Structure formats: C-alpha cells, structure tokens
Automatic annotation (TrEMBL):
<keyword id="KW-0808">Transferase</keyword>
<comment type="pathway">
    <text>Glycan biosynthesis.</text>
</comment>
<dbReference type="Pfam" id="PF02922">
    <property type="entry name" value="CBM_48"/>
</dbReference>
<feature type="active site" description="Nucleophile">
    <location>
        <position position="342"/>
    </location>
</feature>
<feature type="domain" description="Glycosyl hydrolase family 13 catalytic">
    <location>
        <begin position="199"/>
        <end position="553"/>
    </location>
</feature>
<dbReference type="InterPro" id="IPR006047">
    <property type="entry name" value="GH13_cat_dom"/>
</dbReference>
<dbReference type="Pfam" id="PF00128">
    <property type="entry name" value="Alpha-amylase"/>
</dbReference>
<keyword id="KW-0328">Glycosyltransferase</keyword>
<dbReference type="InterPro" id="IPR014756">
    <property type="entry name" value="Ig_E-set"/>
</dbReference>
<dbReference type="Pfam" id="PF02806">
    <property type="entry name" value="Alpha-amylase_C"/>
</dbReference>
<feature type="active site" description="Proton donor">
    <location>
        <position position="397"/>
    </location>
</feature>
<dbReference type="GO" id="GO:0043169">
    <property type="term" value="F:cation binding"/>
</dbReference>
<dbReference type="InterPro" id="IPR017853">
    <property type="entry name" value="GH"/>
</dbReference>
<dbReference type="InterPro" id="IPR006048">
    <property type="entry name" value="A-amylase/branching_C"/>
</dbReference>
<dbReference type="InterPro" id="IPR013780">
    <property type="entry name" value="Glyco_hydro_b"/>
</dbReference>
<dbReference type="GO" id="GO:0005978">
    <property type="term" value="P:glycogen biosynthetic process"/>
</dbReference>
<dbReference type="GO" id="GO:0005737">
    <property type="term" value="C:cytoplasm"/>
</dbReference>
Amino acid sequence: MGGNYSAMDPMQVPVPDLRKLFERDGYLKPYERELRRRYACFKDIWDKIQGWDGGVESFSTAYNYYGPQFGFDGSVVWREWAPGAHSIHLQGDFNGWNPKSHPFKKLEYGKWELYIPADKDGSHPLKHQSRVQIIVNDHLYRVSPWASYVKPYEGFTYQHFIYRPDEPYKFKHPKVSRPASLRIYECHVGIATNEGRVGTYLEFKDNVLPRIKGLGYNAIQLMAIMEHAYYASFGYQVTNFFAASSRYGTPCELKKLIDRAHELGIYVLLDVVHSHASKNTLDGLNEFDGTNAGFFHDGPRGTHALWDSRLFNYSETEVLRFLLSNLRWYQEEYKFDGFRFDGVTSMLYHSRGIGEGFSGHYDEYFGLNVDTEALVYLMLANELVHSIDKRAITIAEDVSGMPASGRPVNEGGTGFDYRLGMAIPDMWIKLLKEEKDENWKMGHIVHTLTNRRWLEGTVAYCESHDQALVGDKTIAFWLMDAAMYTHMSTLSEPNAVVERGLALHCMIRLITNALGGEAYLNFMGNEFGHPEWLDFPREGNNSSYHYARRQWHLVDDSLLKYRFLNQFDVDMNALEEKYGWLRSNPAYVSCKHDGDKLIAFERAGLLFVFNFHPSQSFTDYRVGVNVPGKYQAVLCTDSKKYGGFGRVEPDTEVHHTQNMPWSDRNDSLQIYIPCRSAIVYARSE
C-alpha cells in the first residue's frame, strides 16, 4: 500500500476547499497540482483503509489484535508482525523460562500467532507483573512492540512486564473543553521535584498541577512519557511506543495524573515522537524481526545521521497501523486530549532538515526534497486524531514553515491546529547573547514575532526545554547570570543587573505572548526565572541529578525576587483570559521606532506599549489607537509587585484620546512610558 503515487492524476481528485488556501495565501496557486497530488495520496490510503474489514476504527485499534490478548475463557492469544523472522518463541515466568515450549505459528503477511490455554483454575497464564520475553530466530531476545509496561531488569535493559491489575484505574472526570486561548505549560514529570532524583506521576499530580492551575495555564504538555531506556534523551529516543514510562510510576498512576488535570480544567497534550525511534535492539523496535528493515527503511534512508536513530517506513501498511494505533491508544486508554508532534521538519524532507536554512521560497516546500510518504502519514494522523475527538489539538514542531501545515486536511493542508514559532526563542537567545540593549532593532523583533502564515495557528514561546538544555542557559540566567547567586534576595542592596533582568524578563514574556501567535507556551520553572540550565544524569556529568530538577523553593521563598517574576506570569495569564488576545486576530502594529526603542500595537481591544530603551523614559509619548475613549493601564511590568520601580502602577494611569490621527490610526493618546517597561491599556467607559 502507498508509495505508488505516480499512476494517479491529481487533477481528477477533488479537493473542494482548496480555494480557501488560495484565498489565504495566493503564493500557493502555482502549486495547485502538487497540493492535489498530496491530497490524492492521502485519499487513496484513507479510502483503502476504510474499505478494509472494520475500516479506520479497526485499523487504528491494532492494540486489540497484536500483543497479548486476554480472552474471557482465560486463554491468551499473542500476535506479532515480524516479516523477516524465521521463528518466534515466547518465554517467561509463566513457563519457567522455557525457550522452546511456546512457539508462534506463522501466518500470512508476516504475521505470527501464539495460543496459550487457560490455567487449570481457569485463570490467565500471564499474571499481573509477570515478566515475558520474545525470542526471534532462536537467539534474538526482544520486547514486543505492543508492550504496555516495561521496566529495567538486572541492569539498564528494559523488559516486558504484564500489566493487568485486579482493579485498574477508572477515570472519574470527563475531558475538558478545547481552550479558546491555548496557554501551555510544558513539563517533565521526572525533573519536577526539588530533590536530585526522578519524580513520580503522583508527586506531579499532587504538587505541580496545583501550581499550574494557580499560574493560569489551561493546558499542559507532558514530555518524555513514551518509554525511553536512556533518561538523558529527554524522551526523544523512544524504545517502547505503547508503554508509558515506568520510571515515574505505573500506568494507573499516570491515569490518576491526567484525571486530576481534567478535574482542574486543564487540557492535556502528549509530546508524541513518531519522527524516529531508538536504535536499541534488546528493548526497542530496531531489528525486531532480525532484519534491518521491518518498521524502518533499510539502508541510509532508515537512519538519522545526527540523531543516531531509526526512521520509519511510512509507506508500509503495518507501520501505519502501528503508529495510528499508537495515537488512538493514548487518546482512548489514557484520555490525552491532543498531541504535540516532535521532529516534523525531519519527517517532511528527505534531507531531514540537516543543513537547511529554509529561506521561505515556496519551491523548497514543493520540490523533490519533500518526503511525500511522511507528509501523507501526518495527514492521516491528523485526520484520525480529529475524527476520534473533535476537541483534539495537534501541534507541529516544524522550523521550516511548510505552507498549509496548519490547515485542515480537507482544505489540502496537513491538518495541524498549530505549529511552534521556533524562530522566536532563537531570536531572544541571539539578542541576549550577542547584542547590547541599545542595538536591538525593534523592526527585527516585530518581524520575527509577526512572521507567520495568516490563519495558521502559531504557538509563541520565549524558551522551551531546548533553550534550557546544558550548553545553553535559561533567559533569566542570560540576563542575570552570577548576580542570581548574590542579589536575588529582597534584603540585598539594589543591583543594576538584576533590575535589568527582572524588567526584560517580564517584557520578553509579554510581547511574545501578545504579539507572537495564537497560543503561548512556557517551560516548567521559567515563569519564575529558573536559574542555570537543564542537564540529565549521564556519563559526562558523573550521573548527577543536580540540574535535572526544578528549584521550587526559590519561588516559594517570600524573601527572594523569583516570586516577582512568578506573579507577573499569574497576572499576564489572567489578563489574557479576560481579554482573549490569543484567540483574537493578529495585532496591528502602529509603532516600531528603532531610535526610541519603542513598539506599540493593538490587539483584542487592548493597547500594548513597550519601551526597550535602557535609559530613556518618555513623557507625553503619542501613540495611535483606532477606537477613541478613555484608556486605563491594566498591567505594567514596572510595577513594584514585579520587582520594578513603580513609576507606573496599574489602575492609576488613565488617558483620554485626543481626536488626532496618528500612525495610520483614527485617533491617539499621549502617555508616560518609563525606560525598560511595558504597559497594557484597556478602554474604560
């Protein structure tokens, strides 16, 4: 199935809403034939799946066919897909680890099946928490690709344990509504404690979820949930796709975490990795059937040169069945609301994005470098996820800016709801690393924050986990560095470095949130200016957990200035919830003055004014607005409650428009805007 796309005439495959793409982006019109071809490839596979017995639902619930299936009569039927295998056996606690007593029978299409009768007492022979192992070709020891629970056994290698508790956890709370304004708290369960150890699902449920709720975020993005044998891979070298990581606890405990999030009204996204897989053989997918192919491409196409991992063969029917079922598994078994797809750029191009600058010329997106098979898989995945749950949100981690990736499949798009605005954090880090404040270009900042495709949702963020990894620093540490060790106490003498850091940290978050997209993301701890960097225990740091944790005690200490940054996040999220700029049309920027270092824009009925000048404050600075009336300050980064100087406090600054057009706006007002501060004004009747 798939792969043989050249025989179809794409112009004969209707895409009724393709015109919507052209209305939004006229540059796509010359590529109509290629857009139709892509849709034709998708439609061909989708229709074939629908025509098979059980249709898409059966195809995407393969976890009910493969792996161990427990019958009502106490028997177990175990199936695997291993087209390159010559023989398969099962050994485990249930048969005294006899490697020959339970051979699989070979079926057609590379499938294998084993029937195990019930025990004499009528119970299933595979007991809860018992260990099992597959033997391929009499000498290759493997973990089933469909294993739902694995954990280390006698060393670092993970092995398959049956997980069938007598009282499985039952969800008590329904999924929450899809947020109109998506405010994402990106988090990692393992590093979510103060202590230098691996945190647990239950600790996260009890200790961190209330913090997230209190901050005003309405969604979490859980990282490193799909099992990965190497902790320091940050979850991106997946070994067991259907197994939630056992290092944090049991599947039931993860369900409790998600259920509690839903009780708090928090939408839950899974950071899903379908772009590649770990090269591990003993506890991963690699060479499962004894060959270099199977789930992956053979030869150079099957290996990622930089990530040292395996690349899926998306033209293979059983690979599509495996990956699509994997998405459904997390939606239905664990009640995840949506997905953030990792490594989409690597999937979209045969070059894997390695060494590509992506100038934005449309030929880059519609040439021979595009991997049609992977692109079609993403279309299938998005169509499936949204057909299962209309509330579902999908986000693409794509730095290339593939056109129409954020439009529905039936419009000829890839089907994602959002893409990550990955150029934004890169800009901030580059500015902080390489340029003095007085050299910042306001036009460059505005262009980077607004350079996105019309009506294709963008998730804006200042820093994610990538910007905090070892070898780099958090924004707070770039701003304040060593002063964070000496002058973050409210009792210490004033310090210019810390004063600058607090001010810019608030300003950077606010302008990114308000101008940069239709959703906002923050990585755990960065809301209060988490210091230093993030580093997992590994050989290079003597297996230290010192940086693989979150120092919550810093923000909880009332004598430290971290609480100022944290409070700003609370108030910024509350203001967004009230006025909803993320769910509004993009902002209208009326001022970007390089000399004055000033940016002004309107969005959702609010006026945002930013003065990035390090020393120049302005009195009676004229700013254009489109709606006349009385404007009152509702948020100011210079407020004393955020560690500022209090030169402007919310609810004290009121200005009236003056019936004077300005900066192509119908009216204007004059304001006082201190140096290194931002003010948000709302109309007040």
